[in-house]
Structures are given as structure tokens and as C-alpha cells.
Amino acid sequence: MINLLMLILVLGAFGLTIWAQFRVKGSFKRWSKVQAKSGLTGQEVARSILDRNGLRDVAVNPVRGQLTDHYDPVSRTVNLSEPVFYSDSIAAVSVAAHECGHAIQHKNAYGALVLRHRMVPVANFASGIAPFLLLGGLILQAMGLFGLGVILYAAVVAFQVVTLPVEFNASSRAKEIIVQEGMISNIEERGVRKVLNAAALTYVASALYALLELLRFVLLFFMSNDD
């Protein structure tokens, strides 16, 4: 009964993850067709925000793909996908401001971001080896191996959970800045919220799915030991 319930919950969370991906793509597509009244492109918005926050040394670069936007803390660059870099849409302005939010977090040593950066090596290692340990433990009925896989997978889940406040804070900073600086008018705030909330939902859905998967693995481990 417990296994069935967990399977239903995990499948539900997986479905939410897929739906969130469709929503963020749909929201970006819709608001990328609506020009911001300021007429500023994503690149111009990013450059302006960075300069006003004392981050003139942070470069703004175009990158290929769609929704490939990110801030690189190592090279200290804001990387915007071409549909954001060159566009003056509400979606472009929103995404560009969000990535600048991460650059400001970095400058201010925002606690959750600092913790997330420190967790990156562990999370990368754990995400690469955990699936093999979990699968190998089940196939070989080696619960010690499976247990080690659960521990490593827990590290991956912890990384995803820590990512949530980082993303929410960056979006909050973005909305506040672009409204205060007049890059977005009050009537355009709805579009900004739609774009950023849809993006945030993908992180929430992924974290929820990972948490439920972790709970399922933990239950499997203890049920196997009881047997």
C-alpha cells in the first residue's frame, strides 16, 4: 500500500515537472511577443542594472539556444540567450533582470547563493554516481551499496532545495529593480510576474519530485532491511 501511494505521489510530481516546463515555455513565448514600453533590449536592461549596482566589470554576453540564460559566478558574466539578449519584449526584460539578480546576490554574498556554490562540487559528484549505486544495489540486492546511493542522492536533493530561495530572491530583486528604474511600467508588471513565476515553478516542481524520490528510496531501504 505504501509503495503504491509513493508511486502515485512520484508520478504526480513528475507530471507537475513536465507541466511546469510547458508553462514556462508557453509564458516566455507569449510575453516575448509583447514589446516593453521602455524599448530596452535584454542586453540594455542587464547592462543598466549591473552598472547601477556597481558591477561594471560583469560582462553581458549572448549565448545560443532558448531559455539558456544564466549567471556564471566563476567568469562573473551574465549570459543571455539570443532571444533575450536582442529582444525588447517583456519576457526578455524579465529574464535579463532575473539573471542580474544573481550577479547582485554574488556581490552581496547572499547566504543561500554562497551555500549553493559550495555545494556544487558535491552535487555534481553525487548526481553522477548516485543512480549507478541505487540501480546496482537493487540488482545485486546489496543494501549497503543502495544505502550509499540514497545518501548521495540526498545531497543532490539538498542542492535543489537550497536553489529555491536563490531563485525566488533573484526574481524578487528583478521585479523590484525594473519597476523602480522605469524599465517596466506598472501595467506591465503582470507580464513580468507571469514569466518569472512560471520559471520559479519549474524549480519547485523539480525539488518536489526529487524529495518524493528520496522518500521512496529511504522507504525501500528500511523495508529491505526489515525483510
From TrEMBL:
The keyword Transmembrane applies. The chain crosses the membrane at residues 6-24, 122-140, 146-166, 200-223. It comes from the Bacteria. The keyword Transcription regulation does not apply. InterPro entries: Zn_peptidase_2 (IPR007395). It holds the Pfam family Zn_peptidase_2. Keywords: Membrane, Transmembrane, Transmembrane helix. PANTHER family: MEMBRANE PROTEASE YUGP-RELATED (PTHR36434). This is Zn-dependent protease. It comes from Marininema mesophilum.
